[in-house]
Amino acid sequence: MSPPHFLVIPYPILGHMNPLLQFSQVLAKHGCKITFLITEFNQNRMKNAIENLGTQINFVALPDGLDPEDDRSDQPKVILSLRNTLPSKLHNLIQNINASDGDDSKITCLVISKNMGWALEFGHNLGIKGALMWPASATSLASFESIPTLIHDRIIDPETGLPTRKQEIQLLPNSPMMDTANLPWCSLGKNFFLHMVEDTQSLKFGEWWLCNTTCELEPGALNRWPRFLPIGPLIQSDTTKSSFWREDTTCVDWLDQHPPQSVVYVSFGSLAIVEPNQFKELALGLELLNKPFLWVVRPSTDSNNENNAYPDGFVGSKGKIVEWAPQKKILNHPAIACFVTHCGWNSIIEGLCGGIPFLCWPFFSDQFINRSYICDVWRVGVGLDKDENGVISKGEIRKKVEQVVGNEDMKARSLKLKELTLDNSAEGGQSSKNLQKFINWAKD
Ligand code: UDX
């Protein structure tokens, strides 16, 4: 029987493209054929990185329907434009692939990410199988799936998704208690909530909801719905070929010069923006540490660079600042002592695989639930608390770094969880079996 041919369709932001790329690379290693869809805008922006990704994957580009100068950080606009533009173009793309490659290479399955639920319904109408690869935790997907129940129980408002009153709930058995104000859509506005209600309904057209997680990490969510299939941790033997953005590798040489467990790594993923005041306080906090630090400061999106203005008194001589790091490599480097993170799911999985304790600094969406897992369930990190002015102070940063770095019990739990997590992807591990089950299903 010929191997399955997957058409992979990520929502075009890095937090979705990277996990789907890693997943594609794992599938390709199992002999599957992969066509990976990107937008023409991203193709131009990421040209060099794509050329570097190797030849296992066939990249194809389609327009996103926006003008070159349109603001692509306006998510509702991008989501709508994709939904209006892509279906007819996808139809032609699939027809062309199927006609040119012959029967053996016909597209057999679509794999989509969040915000692209319509594509599963589209594939279903063409008789093509489909699966969702969710780019965050299974718990956050379960929370979207629970929206009708939360509305029925009058916990959230059906029009806005906001809590009807202040309360703590346990969304699923074996999951942490959460403040309803921290449900993942609450920080993203009414339009996003309404979009997610619609998107989640289309997800029913996907046979599997794959998540980069493991049975031990989120048993409550994974046991709840039979469609959930944990296939994590997604790890690549060649980490240099798993990112769409160019990485500054000089920080690996810099880390090589530091003793084990001595460096504080600070990174807030691809989207979070640190407000100017908070940025200054963070810089001063790092300056106060009696440890070196490696800090990822993405180029500012504002033209006068106000967001990334370093404060007076910041010298930074103990640290290294880069615009984008080879994070998976960093988190596996012996010199790293702890990880100051925004609690994006991919960063968490990568930190767990490195056995690194966390300092949690969530910004929005699922990041608050993720913090609860780290601090309250797995107990491999601590949260950074805001002061009365809503700022995480330099003193708080120093105090919590010392608390985490000196905590041998926490370090031991991190190493134990690393082992449990990695076992899943090893031969005979649960995620490994799930992956094989998925590939066999796609072949049939
Ligand atoms: C988004 C959402 O913001 C997050 O809440 C959700 O859980 C996943 O999707 P993002 O904010 O980018 O993602 O965070 P994260 O999930 O942590 O992904 C960041 C990715 O960028 C990671 O794979 C990380 O390795 C990579 N990265 C980050 C680098 O390669 N280099 C860096 O310097 C920083």
Automatic annotation (TrEMBL):
**Protein keywords:** Transferase
Does the record's keyword annotation contain Transferase? yes
Q: Does the keyword Transferase apply?
A: yes
The record's GO molecular-function terms, alphabetically, read: quercetin 3-O-glucosyltransferase activity; quercetin 7-O-glucosyltransferase activity
What the entry lists under SUPFAM superfamilies is as follows: UDP-Glycosyltransferase/glycogen phosphorylase
Q: Which Gene3D superfamilies does the entry link to?
A: Glycogen Phosphorylase B (3.40.50.2000)
Q: List the InterPro entries hit by this protein, alphabetically.
A: EF_Hand_1_Ca_BS, UDP_glucos_trans
Similarity section: Belongs to the UDP-glycosyltransferase family.
Record-given protein name: UDP-glucosyltransferase
UniProt source species:
Vigna unguiculata (Cowpea)
